[in-house]
Specification:
There is one protein chain. The chain is of the alpha+beta class. The protein is 37% helix and 26% strand. A six-stranded antiparallel beta sheet has the order 2-1-3-4-5-6, with helices on both faces. A hairpin with a 3-residue loop joins strand 4 and strand 5. Helix 1 packs antiparallel against helix 2. The longest helix has 13 residues. The chain is globular and about 55 Å long.
Length: 155
């Protein structure tokens, strides 16, 4: 089984004081920065053809530590039967991570979802769960906030 897979990332916003840190992290993780000499291009796809399977974790952790104002999404492609890894972050809203397909579409684990629903108070309706704990489990708040940034920077 392969120990690496492709990874893609989009940065949609970052405070200008942290843009250099984003570029440094991307360079450290060997992402292709292209031929642009103008620095970080918001909404551009950055990627790498092969990176260790920890790449999505390593990259997202470094970005959250060194450029917490960055709005980004990244995903690492699945390998074999295993899901890939998707991470999105919108400051003030949160960070969402899940398995994903090779297009970066998050996948929610059915056993995990069942477990979370089973842990909900008996009197809680599905609608209440979706508006409360479900927003974190399904990433709806982060994905909804991210959508407005994606619309402003179509790829």
């Amino acid at each position: 089984m392969s120990e690496s897979s492709p990874l893609q990332m989009f940065v949609y916003s970052v405070h200008e004081s942290e843009a250099k840190a984003v570029l440094e992290v991307m360079k450290e993780e060997d992402l292709d920065l292209g031929s642009s000499t103008h620095g970080l291009v918001l909404g551009r796809r950055y990627g790498i053809d092969e990176t260790p399977l920890s790449g999505a974790y390593d990259l997202s952790t470094a970005l959250l530590q060194r450029a917490p104002s960055a709005v980004f999404k990244l995903w690492q492609h699945p390998v074999g039967e295993d899901d890939g890894r998707f991470v999105a972050h919108v400051p003030g809203v949160g960070t969402f991570g899940a398995g994903c397909d090779s297009e970066g579409t998050p996948r929610i684990s059915v056993p995990e979802l069942i477990s979370q629903l089973a842990d909900a108070p008996e009197e809680m309706t599905v609608r209440e769960w979706l508006a409360g704990p479900g927003t974190k489990a399904l990433g709806t708040a982060v994905l909804s906030a991210l959508a407005s940034y994606e619309e402003a920077h179509p790829s």
